[in-house]
Amino acid sequence: MERLERVDKPKPDAPTLKLNFTPETRGGNDIVRCKDVGKSFGEKSIFTDLNFEVYRRDVVGIVGANGTGKTTLFRMILGEEPATEGEMWVGPTLKFGYYTQELEGLNPDNEIIDEIWELRPQQTQGEIRSFLGKFLFSGDDVFKRIGNLSGGEQSRILLAKLLLANANVLLLDEPTNHLDIPAREALEAALAEYPATLFIISHDRYLLNNLATKLLIFDGTPGGTANLFEGNYAEYIAQQQEPKENQQLSENIQASQPSQISPQKSKSKSKRKRKIKAQRLVGSN
Ligand SMILES: Nc1ncnc2c1ncn2[C@@H]1O[C@H](COP(=O)(O)OP(=O)(O)O)[C@@H](O)[C@H]1O
Ligand SMILES: [Mg+2]
Questions:
Q1: Does 158 lie in the same domain as 135?
Q2: Ligand 1 neighbours (beta carbon < 6 A)
């Protein structure tokens, strides 16, 4: 069977990931409120003075240099780490799905099929295999041991598990790092259709351009802060054309980007439904 890894230049009929994230329940309208929130580990201040609110169906792109506390913020939203200053409120009826930067949450001893079957024990093997087919695991692939898989394959399994979580808030920590271009496009397309709330930590400018309706920008100084920009990435960049106090933020966002992809021009204001494919395939100049 044709496998994703081999598809350098996808033909129109090449197999692609078909993802569809569907929340089980709608959840409340208020997702997260931060008032003067700070976080320290012992003596070490990670960030301070976070003040922002997130509502249902926001897509919050989170950017900033490594070590500024982006992953820590996710763990705080999930209740795994307490705020050490201020007040952080998280909606009580939310169902979170978390994709970790380190691809945590897989049992390396499991075969792929078992990793998924455990989540849907009532389904038949045929149903599980057909579901895995959407993630481009077919034939004997499904019996591979997780521990022997590449990062890209593990990433696809994590996305499969995330999909089965039927979350109404997704926290994605650098979700495209291990994915090749067709898989990134498929993920972006699925997320664009996701009818709930998304937080995405990413250096992938395309992903942010296509999806984010708000940006949380970590300023990149130790013990610094992060500011919420109430607009999408293109609007943010446009605002940066006028040099003002936000100049520093612009430098930080630029510094946080790897240079593999050049900036995109502003697109229409429709935030969720964008032509992702054309941009990525054409825009690799
Ligand atoms: N459990 C922890 N104990 C102590 N320090 C931590 C812990 N978790 C993260 N840190 C530190 O907090 C800082 C921010 O980490 P992290 O949130 O992973 O940053 P980012 O995701 O933005 O790269 C780093 O200096 C990291 O070493
Ligand atoms: Mg991180």
A1: yes
A2: 41, 46, 64, 66-72
Both 63 and 178 in one domain: the answer is yes
> Is 66 within the bounds of a domain?
yes
156 pLDDT above the threshold of 70:
yes
Distance 69 CA to ligand 1 centre (A): 6
Residue with more model confidence, 265 or 154: 154
Residue-range definition of the domain harbouring residue 138: 106-166
27: left (phi over 0), alpha (psi -120 to 50) or beta: left
Q: Is residue 244 part of a domain?
A: yes
Q: Residues 255, 133: one domain? A: no
The CATH code of the domain that includes 223 is: 3.40.50.300
